[in-house]
Design a protein that fits this description.
- The protein has 281 residues and is mainly alpha-helical.
- It has one domain (3-275).
- It is 52% helix and 6% strand.
- The protein has helices spanning 3-11, 25-35, 43-54, 71-76, 78-84, 98-113, 121-145, 150-173, 185-188, 196-201, 208-213, 222-232, 242-251, and strands at 191-193, 239-241, 255-258, 261-264, 269-272.
- A hairpin with a 2-residue loop joins strand 3 (255-258) and strand 4.
- It starts with a helix and ends in a 9-residue tail after the last strand.
- Mean pLDDT is 84; it is low at 12-21.
Length: 281
């Protein structure tokens, strides 16, 4: 728990907000993992990546799972130089496809290129087998439903579900500062807002600052958490309309020149991140 979390918990009324006790945390994580299993994400992989890596290393230049890293990493990584051309804000035509396959790509990347995240070789094998088996299951089910239906019954639904999830993932942190020396959710995370019906339908996934500050609070209380954060830190709390946030993501590069400046290393185009002034810039 970071400093912001301690401050919030100490000031909130526990009669107003349901704080889930630690013994239920793993149950909640497994439940969340089951909800995204259709992409091939094993519940244990989601716990390892999301709970242990993402929340503990949010926007860290070299270790943050959702951060594309500093410019020096770009120049030393062939993989990052190739990936950058697919990312929103890179200015390439292929970047428009990123939101339609981003979640599936990240699932495969965690399973096959980050073995250090898993405790044993048996666990790594289980996670990788789950990814492959899930995709094969969808393909077989689509083909059994009707001939040549994989496009309509697998690829299109997969692209739509990826787009919905990535529309939140991309706005959660992509335009926020890189924070290697702090893990303050009010600085490195963004909440996006849309129609109330959509927010409820998407299980309040848009309240991402709130999720990072109090990760085990039931999302149904996210609006209440948001109201407290706005009252406690009115000038620091980061909130934006979902469409506006997506537009900013599509226009800003992904690599960091420094904590508060994004750069396209191929064109040298730069852009500012969100609350740069809170990091002394």
């Amino acid at each position: 728990m970071n400093g912001t979390q301690y401050n919030v918990v100490s000031r909130f009324s526990f009669s107003q907000i349901l704080i889930v006790q630690r013994e239920y945390a793993r149950f909640l994580s497994y439940s969340w993992g089951i909800c995204i299993a259709h992409w091939g994400v094993h519940p244990e992989a989601s716990i390892t990546w999301h709970n242990m890596e993402h929340h503990h290393k949010t926007q860290h230049g070299f270790d943050g799972p959702d951060c594309f890293g500093p410019e020096r990493l770009y120049h030393h990584s062939v993989w990052l130089r190739r990936l950058e051309k697919f990312t929103p804000g890179s200015g390439t035509k292929r970047s428009y496809l990123f939101l339609f396959f981003g979640s599936l790509y990240h699932t495969a990347r965690v399973a096959f290129t980050q073995p250090q995240l898993f405790r044993t070789s048996r666990e790594r094998l289980k996670i990788r087998a789950f990814v492959i088996a899930t995709q094969l299951l969808w393909e077989i089910a689509a083909e059994l439903a009707m001939p040549y239906s994989m496009f309509y019954l697998m690829l299109v639904p997969l692209a739509v579900s990826n787009f919905i999830m990535m529309s939140y993932v991309a706005t959660n942190h992509f335009i926020s500062p890189m924070t290697e020396h702090t893990n303050d959710a009010l600085v490195n995370s963004l909440t996006v807002r849309s129609n109330a019906i959509i927010e409820r339908f998407h299980l309040f996934n848009n309240f991402h600052v709130e999720h990072h500050v109090l990760p085990y609070v039931n999302p149904v209380h996210a609006r209440l958490v948001a109201s407290h954060l706005k009252r406690l830190w009115p000038d620091k709390y980061q909130e934006m309309g979902h469409i506006e946030a997506l537009q900013r993501v599509s226009k800003r590069p992904r690599v960091y020149r420094n904590e508060t400046t994004l750069i396209n290393p191929r064109t040298e185009r730069t852009a500012r991140t969100l609350p740069a002034h809170y990091l002394g810039d």
